[in-house]
Amino acid sequence: MITIKNQSNIENRIALKKLQDRRFKQLVDYMYTHQDFYKNGWDQANINVKSIDSVEAIEQFPFTYKDDLRNNYPLGLLACEKEEVVRIHCSSGSTGKPTMVAYNRNDIDIFTELVARSLICGGVRKGMRIHNSYGYGLFTGGLGIHYGGEHLEATVIPVSSGVTERQIMLLVDLQSEVLCCTPSYALTLMEALKQNDLIDKINLKYAILGAEPWTEASRKVIEENLNVNATNIYGLSEILGPGVAQEAYDEKGGSYIWEDHFYPEIIDPITKKQVPHGHEGVLVLTTLTKRAMPLMRYWTNDICSINYDDSFNRPFVKMSNIKGRNDDMIFINGVNVFPSQFESIIGKIDYLNYNYQLHISKNNHLDKLALNVESKETSLIQDGHLRNQKEAALNSILKNNFGINIKVNLVKKGSLPMSTGGKINRVKDDRNQ
C-alpha cells in the first residue's frame, strides 16, 4: 500500500484506491469471460476470479510478456468483437513479428483524454501550436499526440519524423510553442537550427519528449539551447501509447503515472516479487480501463522505481526516469551496464558532444567495449597528442565508474549517426559476427 503523507491528498488517494479496486474487479471479470488466453492461464493457476475484491489481489496473477502477444499474433488476445475495433497499432517489430494492439471506440477516447492530460501536465495550453515530430502510422506516438493535442484545442502541426530541413523551416515559419519528438531527435533539430543560425528565430517554450530513455544531461543541453521547458512523456503501444505517464513542467523529478487507468508495480527481475517504493526493478503495468485488448501485469522491461511523497502536487505516484530496458542491459565480462549511464558521464564533460555510440566486439573469447564519442572541438581531434590525453582521461573515468577497461575513441563532431526522428540505436554489437 502507498503511504499517504500529504494530508491534503488523503481524500484523493482514498478515492483513487476505491476506484482502482472497482475497476480491477471489473477488469478481472471481463478478461476471464472475453479472453481465452487469460481464462486458461488463470484456471491453471487456480485463481478464483469471483473472490477478487481489491487490487491487492493482483500478485496472484501471472505476468504477461511480449512473447505472449507475439505467440498470439496477430490478434489472439482480442477481447471484443472484431467489428468493434476502430484502430490497430503495432510496435516497431525490429526482430520478427511486431506486437499488435487493438482499440475500440472507448479505448481511443481514453487514449485521447490521457494524452491531453499529459500535454497539459507538460505545460501545453489551448491555442498553442504543437510541432509534432513523432512518427505517424503504426507507431502510436504521432497519432496519440495528434488527437490529444486537438482534444485540448491546441493547434497540431502533423510534421511526422524525418526531413530535418523541412522541420526547421516549419519551426521558424509557424512559430510553434511546443515540440513533441524523441529526445535524440530534439538534439538533431537543435544542431540543425544552430548550423543554420536559426535558434533565435524560433518560438519554442515547451518540449514533450519520450519514446526512449534520456538523461538529465540531455535535458540540460536541450533546455539551454532551445530555450524550452523539457519534460518526459512515457508510454508503450502494448499498454496504450504515449500518455501512460507524464512529467510536470512545474514539478520535475519523475513522471506521474495516471493510476486511475493503469496499475503500476515494480518487480524484482530475479525473484519476480514486488519491491518497496524507491527501489529499482522492472515496471509492470495493468490496464484498468482498456477493453479491446486489456493486459494483466504486462512486463514492460523498463527499469525504474516508483514513489509517492507528500511534496507532490498531484495524487499519483511518480516513476523515475527509465534507467534502461532490462533487455538493453549490456553484459561485458560479467559486468552489467546501460547505455544511459554513459550519457550521464558524457554530459558532465565540457569538451564532449552528446552524440555517442557503443561498439561491442570479441577478442580471444573476451568481450571488448569501445565508446565512440564526438568532440565539440575540431582542434582536439586534429591534435593527436591532446586527443590521446583526453581519451586516456575519459578511459580512467569510465574504469572508475564501471570497473572495466573501455577503449575511448574521440571522433569529429557530426561523424556518428544521429536521429532522423525515430529511436536511435546507441549500441553496435558485433560479438556474434
Could you characterize what this model shows?
There is one protein chain. The protein has eleven helices and 21 strands. The strands form five sheets. The chain has a nine-stranded mixed β-sheet with strand order 4-3-5-6-7-8-9-14-13, with helices on both faces. Mean pLDDT is 91; it is low at 1-5. Helix content is 31%, strand content 26%. With 433 residues, the chain is of the alpha/beta class.
Question: How do the strands and helices of this protein lay out in sequence?
Answer:
Elements: H1 10-34, H2 36-44, H3 66-71, E1 85-90, E2 100-104, H4 105-121, E3 129-132, H5 140-151, E4 155-157, H6 164-174, E5 178-181, H7 183-195, E6 206-210, H8 216-226, E7 229-236, E8 241-248, E9 251-257, E10 262-267, E11 281-287, E12 298-304, E13 306-307, E14 318-319, E15 324-325, E16 330-332, E17 335-337, H9 339-346, E18 352-363, E19 366-375, H10 378-382, H11 384-402, E20 407-412, E21 427-429
Parallel strand pairs: 3-4, 3-5, 5-6, 6-7, 18-21, 19-20
Antiparallel strand pairs: 1-2, 7-8, 8-9, 9-14, 10-11, 11-12, 12-15, 13-14, 16-17, 18-19
Helix pairs in contact: 1-2, 4-5, 6-7, 7-8
